[in-house]
Each structure stands twice: as C-alpha cells, then as structure tokens.
Amino acid sequence: MSAAGLPVDPSHGALAPVGVRDVTLTGGFWGDRQRLNATAILAHAEQWTERMGWTGNFDAAAEGRLPRDRRGREFADSEIYKLLEAMSWEVARSGSQDVERRLRALTARVAAAQEPDGYLNTMFGRPGQGARYSDLEWGHELYCFGHLIQAGVARLRTAGPGDQLVRVALRAADHVCAEFGPGGRDGVCGHPEIEVALAELARATGERRYLEQAALFLDRRGHGRLGPIGFGAAYFQDDEPFRTASALRGHAVRALYLAAGAVDVAVDTGDTELLDAAIRQTARALERRTYLTGGMGSHHEGEAFGDDFELPPDRAYSETCAGVASVMLNQRLLLATGEARYADAVERTLYNVVATSPAADGRAFFYVNTLHQREPGRVPEPDRASPRAASSLRAPWFEVSCCPTNVARTLASLGAYVATTDAGGVQLHQYAAGRIATTLADGSPVELRVETLYPADGRVRVTVLSGPERAWTLRVRVPAWASGATLDGAAVQPGYAELTRAFVAGDAVELDLPVRARWTWADPRIDAVRGTVAVERGPLVYCLTGADVATARVRTDMAPLDRDGRVLVPIAAHETTGAPWPYPGTAPGGTDAEPELVPLTPYHAWGNDGPSTMRVWIPTV
Amino acid sequence: MSAAGLPVDPSHGALAPVGVRDVTLTGGFWGDRQRLNATAILAHAEQWTERMGWTGNFDAAAEGRLPRDRRGREFADSEIYKLLEAMSWEVARSGSQDVERRLRALTARVAAAQEPDGYLNTMFGRPGQGARYSDLEWGHELYCFGHLIQAGVARLRTAGPGDQLVRVALRAADHVCAEFGPGGRDGVCGHPEIEVALAELARATGERRYLEQAALFLDRRGHGRLGPIGFGAAYFQDDEPFRTASALRGHAVRALYLAAGAVDVAVDTGDTELLDAAIRQTARALERRTYLTGGMGSHHEGEAFGDDFELPPDRAYSETCAGVASVMLNQRLLLATGEARYADAVERTLYNVVATSPAADGRAFFYVNTLHQREPGRVPEPDRASPRAASSLRAPWFEVSCCPTNVARTLASLGAYVATTDAGGVQLHQYAAGRIATTLADGSPVELRVETLYPADGRVRVTVLSGPERAWTLRVRVPAWASGATLDGAAVQPGYAELTRAFVAGDAVELDLPVRARWTWADPRIDAVRGTVAVERGPLVYCLTGADVATARVRTDMAPLDRDGRVLVPIAAHETTGAPWPYPGTAPGGTDAEPELVPLTPYHAWGNDGPSTMRVWIPTV
C-alpha cells in the first residue's frame, strides 16, 4: 500500500510520479472540477448506471436471473468498474466517508457476481449466453477485467490489500493469467485495456507474472488473431504488431489504451524497442493526427484516427474517452522521458477535451467533441439515454456511456498530474492552486504551495513550505505557446525552466506565463481548416458561437483583444453566393464591412447555455 | 409493350421521354461506355454474383437447401435483379442474342425460387430463417421486390408480357399489394425502392392499384412505423413525412430512391403538394448538399447526407449508387418540369460519378467516390470481395456490392437520357454522338443525327434526317457553365436555346459550347474547401494526382491552360511547417517558387493507373 495513492507507478523513468494524496487542489479551474466530480458527477453516474440496469446486472447474476434480466451493451460492466475506480480516488483524495460507504456497497454487489474461478462478467458464460471468450472481437470480457483491475489497483494503493474490491480484482487477474497465460488460450481482446491494467497490478503487488501476461497480450496482438470485422483489423490494432507500427491508427480509444499499456510494459521490462515504438507513434499522432484541442479521432465511422493531417473540424469525433486515454499515454511518456511536449499534450487535452465533456452542473456530457457545429441541434431527452455520437449538446447519459465514468476517474485523480520528482528535486507540470507534499528520491520530504488563477491569469507563485536543507532544483514547465515567459523576472524558454537553490521555508518563486489571446494557424497540410485561424489564450482554445458562425470572416491584420479576461475578435460579415449551384466560376468577393468586435467563448464552456452553433476555426478568406 | 423501351414513362409532365430503342449511341464518351458495359461489366457482374453464391441462393431456395446454403447479406437477391434489369436494357439496345440467352437462364433460376403466393426472397420465411417481414428495418424484402419489379418493367417494355421475368415480377407485385395493401400489414421497408418500382409498373401495365400501393407506402413513411435503430429514424426517412420534409437527409441512396418514387406518384396522381416537396428537397440538395462532381452523401457513418454545406472532400462518401439515384431523381424532375437545372445535374453526375465508378477495363468499381485521397492506399485483393468503403482504389467486387449492377443498368439505358419530346418538338439534353428516332406528341416521326466529340470538344452538330413538314422546334440545352455558347453562330444563354423551323431532311444546326479549362470556386459556406479552387472543363471535373497533392499551391492569377485537350495548372510548392505541433502561432509563409505547369487528370479517370494520391480542390493559400 502506497500512502501517496499513485495511479501510475513505473519501476523506472526520468521522473517519479506523485500520488492523489500528495496533492490538494484548493479551488480554481481544477479544484472546482474536482468538487463538481465529488458533489455531482459521481452521484449522477451512480444513478444512471442503476437506472439503466447496468448495476442490476450484477444482482441478476448473483441471483441467477441472467440472461433474462441482462441490460445494456456487452461492456456495461466496465462502467461500474470505472465508477468504482473514480470513487476509490475520490475517497483517497477527500476522505469522504459517504463515498467510502457507497463504494463498499457497490463493491459488494459486484463481488457477489464473481464465480468461484474468478471469472466475472454478466454477459457471458451462463446457459443462454455466449460461452466465455467466444467473441473476443466484440465481447469486451478482457476489457471489462482491465477496468475492474484498474479499480482494484486504485483501491489497493489507497485502502490496502484487505479491501473487498482488491480481492475481487486479484481473483479476476489470476483467472485471466490462468486462462490466457502461456499454454492457455492464444487470444487477445478486441478492445485493449487489460494490458495497462495488468502492468499496473504487477507494480502494485510486486507480482511479475501480471506484467508478463500484459507483455504476452501485447506480443500476441497485430498478427490477425482476431477474426475479420467490417472495420478491418486496424480497428483493433490487430493489423500490425505494436512494436513495428508507425502510427496510432484505428479506433482511437483502443489505440491509445494499447499504447499506454505498451509504455508500462516497455518501462518495466526495459524494452527500449517497445518504448521507442510508443514514442514514435505518439509523436506522429501529436504532429499529424491531433486536433487543436488535443482531441484525437477524425472519423465517426469506426471512432477512428484518420490519415495524417485529416482533421475535419465538423466531423471531429474526438471522443472524450480518447482524450482521457491520450492523457494516460502522454503522462506515462512524461514519466518515462521527462520531455515537456507530453506535459503540454496533457494540459491541452485536460483543458479542452476532459474539461469540455461535463456540463457546468456535472449532469450531462459530451461524448463527441466537435470543433464545428453548423446547426444548433436539439436538447437531448433528459430521461432517456442518447445515441452516443448524434447529440449536438451534452446529454445526461448515453446508450454507450463510457465517457462520464472516464471523466470521473480522471477528475478524481487529477492531483497526480500536477508534479513529479527526481533525484534533483521537484518538477511542476500543471498549474493549479493547492499544496504538494511529496518526497524526493533520497527520501527528503518537500512541501510546496502553489498560488495561481491560471489559466485566467499567467502568474504562478510557488512557495517552499519545507524541504531538504541542501540545494535542490525546482523545475517548472513553460508551455510551448508561452514565448515571453519569465521566472522570477528572468526570461525563460518553452520547455522546463529551473532554479537550483538551498531553499528555505517561505522562499517563493514566480513564474509568469504570457496568458493573452493569440491567433493560431494550422499547418497548411491540414486541409479542412485552410484559410481559417483559431484563437487561444494560454492553454485554452476559444470558439465563436451564435449567429456569426455561418458568415463570419475574421480580420487577422488586427490582433484579438484580451479585455478583462474576455477575448474579442474583429469579425466582418462574409459574402455568400446563395446561387442555385454553389460552385461559381468566379472567386467569392471580398467584404468592405467594418469589422465588429465579437466575444469568443472558451471551448470547454460552449453549449452550456443550450443549443448553439459553434466553430473553433474562423475563416479569414 | 412500348417499342421504344422507356425506363420512365410518366402519365403527365412538361416533357415526354424517349426510350432506349429510340437512341443509338455511336462511340464517343458514352457509346464507348455502353460497349464496355456490354462486353465486360455485365459478364463481370454475372461472374461475381455467381462466385459469391448470391445467384446460387435462388437454386438453394428451389432445392430446399436454405437457410443452410444462403450466402451474402440480406439484400443479395437485389443484385441479381439489377443485373437482370441491366441485361433487359442491353438486349433492347443492342439486340444481343447472347445476352438474351443469359438473361433467360438467369430468370429461370430466379423464377424457380418464387413461392406459390408470389413471395420471393432467399433470406426469409423458411424454417430456420426469420419470418417474412419480421425485420422491416433491415430485412430489405420490399427493397428486393422493388428491384425485381424494375427488372420486370424493363422486360415488359422491351420483350412483352409473355416473358418469364415479367410474370415473376407481376406475381411479386400482386403479393406485395395483397400483403401491404389497405387492411394489410401497416408497414414500410427500411430501404425505399418499392415505391418507384410500383409506380412504374402501374404505368407499364395500366393497373392503377400498383400506383395506389406506391402512394400508400409513401404516406405511411415518416411517422415512426419503423423500429428504433442506432442511426436514428432519419436514416431511413421515417422521421418526417416526405410531404412536409424540407431536405434530403439520412442515408443518401434511401433518400434519393424515395424522392424518385415520390415524383412518380405525384405526377401520376396529380399531387402537386407532393411534387413541390420533391422539388423543394432536391433544390436544397443541389444548392447545399451536393459535391462538385454531383455526388451526394457527406458521411461515411450511415452513408448519409450531411448538414447544409457540410461537404468534406476527403471524407466524401458520394456513393456510386447515390449518383445513380440522383440521376433517376433529376431525370424525373426534368420530365415533370422541363427545367434545365435537372438536366445539368444529370450530366454532371453521369460524367463525374457514374462514369468514375468503373475502371477502364470494366472489371473494378469505386463504391465511394472521394474527392481527396491523401495516401495512395493499396490495390484491393483481386480474388476477394472488398469492404465497401475502405478501398482507396476501384475493387473488383464488394461484400456489399450494389454499385456495379447499378452502373450496369444505368449504362445500358443511357440512351433514354439524351432527348425528350413535347408537342412543339424535340429537346436535346445530353450530347453524345448517335442517332435519335422518336415521335412527337402528334405522332409525327422525327429522326436526328448528332455528331460531336463532346466533352473533348464543344461542337455539337445536329442533322435532321426526317421529320414533319410543318415547323417544329429543336431545343438544345446550354449547360450552366457554358457562358459564351453559340447556336448557329448566335450567342445563346445557359438554359435552353431553340430554333423553330420547317426543317427539311439534311438541315443541320450547330451548337458550340465553350469547352475550355476554367477555375471553379466554392460558396464560402462550404468550409471544407475554403482557400482552394477546382478546375473544370466542360462537364468534367479535373483533379490533381501524384506527388504534388500534398504540397501544391495553385496560382489563380494565371488561367489554367487548355492545350491539345490536356489541362495544365500553374503550381508552386507549398511551405509546410514540419513542427512537432502543427498549430503554430504565426501564419504560414508565402512562396516565391516559380510555378510549374502540372497536368490534371479528368476525375472520372483517376486511379486507373494504380494507387495514387488525388485532390479535386487545389489550395490557393
């Protein structure tokens, strides 16, 4: 049991993580969202999983009422596991006895459905159901086990080995190893997830066989072991081994979970070839297959990555879960390499995908995160699960509802993304008001206070409350966009800036990041946004909403205005042809209209006032 | 039996159609393709339907081997029916005894599977299969009947009522009316098609009850009679009655077949409200939901129309069958209204969608017609059916293979699109070398010879070979792009130009259309092609292929060159950032590179030399 509560605990790496108990966020952008998670999102997810009958599936299993009373899709069990993981981190973070009680009650219902050999799934294995592992392509059994094991790891690291959820997860993991180990079933799951879970369980228990099983699943994939499906083998990354593949491809969440598991296995087995493969694929994704928001997945069809530079804003899939998965992957690569680009990606994705999904009241979610909404659309039905990708607004719940619980477990464990340590000192990666109490590699405790209004304001004041007497190094991340940043008044470059000093209690340093509205262009190879520009302010992407969306043309010869934290851009009306055939033989004319200053909305906040048009990329021509 | 062989024969309308026997195409763009259809495409489709076991399904039905030996998807029967329709028109057009023999043999196998009450489907109704009409959402039974009936109509109009295919189709139609008539099953098919088929059968037989059944199906749809599906009710146009809907929406082929049937029903019942609905929805599609190629369908997901102006070139679905269906719809509206815009749409779609699908050798087809191919892709496996939409090249056959047989029936009946008649004379809509022999409304025969190299050359010489002695009017379509056209040397405007004269045999008129390469821009509301330009030459869309696709920037201050029928455009290399994050804070730089003249390819011919990159819309910025 780790007192810190580490979501990820690699055996090696450039940087060592902090745990959810090491960090207290006190209000501000992320502190507010952690509170929203605690007070609204968790209960909302509990109520909906209950209402949909997905929690009841476990009762039905225990009471012998399956398959008759089974509700939901084949992966419904996993929502309860992700909720249990979220609750585990929440209890660790806040010490809430109420959440602890609900977590235990839910765990007991899950545990009652586990079979004597450790198998646990409400969809398979009973008379009238498909046989166990009879549908590895779509059955999601190992995927569900993966989420159960991740929940178990969260609990093991925060409540200890005696907890019921830990025991259930260990029995499940042992079952998986017995069934799929060397000499067992020579299969992999259609949806990666078990890899990252088993690798972490190995770390949490010290049992190497879980790591070996994760490595085995990784090596097996990519050779066509899964049967043919309409989307093709790339959909579940069974077209090519991870080790040799050059790109994240196919279903985005699958690809990203798999890559996260590959990093874990690579790090813990010292497999540099495997780590290089993850770095190579992630670099290509960040350079060519990522939306400005950090979102990934360009196709609705197959919820998949597109080709390089194929990033249509209006058909962006950018699933919330792919954002969560990208944060998982990039955080693992940050720990492995210490490179700022991964922390940049984590920040961008947290602010513009993960924070965008939940409504301001925590009771509705975006599943898909489009960058351009042409028609305002409708309010989803409040009392019914919505189709996952069809909604133009946040919906209370979905027929496939992976995103809300994924947001919940990410928000509950957010503290772990804020900082890391190494032999030389502490690194701050994400800026949020709060306290960090951790230990350096030599065992010296260190405690810091972070004061900031970031991202509304760029000043970040870090006060050393306690620490070793010797000199040590405080490193702070300067985001790639932050040209002109200063650290204690001295200019610093994007990447990491550092101060090495024998800090005494009360010493403070101040990082100043130039948080101002700025124009952002796209690589000309991103065809879908040619002739447009976006506006960012610090780590936040902004968007235009309302009536101007259809006809706006922005004047980039004038700078975007940053007035009292509001962003305004000069917009002139766009000429449109309105002809019976929309492809004229003459170029569209210019406009002489005097530009009007129009306020933009932070992307993460759009749609909170009801149906609306929206666009991130605003035309310049 | 109509000697002319009319595919469509409305009871009213501004213009009267000509039949496939009235028109002989002698070489040139379309004559060559009709020959390709006769010599390669028909046999290719015959071989593949056989090889896939789809034809064998009928034998298996007759021999009591179903469901065991059933092959293919639920709509596989329809491919054989579309092939039979194509063969029927081909026999009528060419008189081929070989095709007649194959058609009869195939008909006999189909007929053997028909049940005593007229029901005919290899997928439903037997022990071990779903009950008849138990899956109206996805079962496609009425859809299959629709294609069977269309084939029967083709045969009735070209071989007479004694033909076996006609008898099979009539028994099927009678079964449908008995089963789904007033007081019968209150349902509609998930895939429209039966409507257009029954309406035409009513015309061909003079039996009004078929028309009434078509009208009944139309009226029933749009009220949520079909069960819920993941794509939503708009997918199969069951969200709103056709009569009140404002847009073509949902699955494009479904929407277009339905609209074609609506026009037929509206015209024959004198239902102007229904006709207005078809006109309104088609106008909106042509103004806001159509690709430059004439292609329709912006989403891979659901093979569906997108929102207005949502026309991504790289994710264009633009299914070949939607092109065929759009030609059907626009031709019907041309006959109903006499307006040139519909003939313009037919021309554009025939040249840039229907002609694009088949390979030069007639043995591979595009199912999806993208307007931008970023990666060259791979050659599809020659011996296996390809996934329908995944291929980057024409494939020999598809798991869902609706397109090849749809192309075949369209090419075989192409003559019928060339001209129409009315009380005053003859109208030429499509320009193809050949002869037209028809009769005016007063019964006077008229015969014309058309000489042209169109679209390679814009001169069209029409010679009157015979006709009435009184004055009559020859009308010729001037396409919307053809500013500067002349008729016998006099300037004429887009729309229709006409000459009224007491023509004597040997009189010739010459239309000269300005077929030269030209820049074409897009309405600025089509966001996905902002900052780009396309090149057209006459009715042909051109495209850039090869290495320049990734980096080309075109110089529109210079005109595209039209040299010896080849189109060349000035291209300067594009600067790309190549940065680790593709969204820089500065605008992409210009280029000083001297432009190079690069040849373009007619869009319909792209991909015939193997895998290639391609783009229709070429960046200007």
Q: Which percent range fits the helix content of chain A? A: 25-40%
Provide mean pLDDT of chain A, rounded: 95
Strand pairing plus helix content of chain A: what structural class? alpha+beta
> What is the count of helical runs of chain A?
13
Query: What's the CATH architecture name of the largest domain in chain A?
Result: Alpha/alpha barrel
Number of strands of chain A: 23
% residues in beta strands of chain A:
15-25%
Give the overall form of chain A.
globular
Q: Classify the fold: give the CATH topology of the largest domain in chain A.
A: Glycosyltransferase
Q: From the alpha carbons, calculate the radius of gyration of chain A and give it in angstroms.
A: 24 Å
Q: Give the quaternary arrangement of the chains.
A: homodimer
At the first level of CATH, the class of the largest domain in chain A is: Mainly Alpha
Question: What profile does the largest beta sheet of chain A have?
Answer: 7 strands, antiparallel
Strand order of the largest sheet of chain A: 2-6-7-8-13-10-11
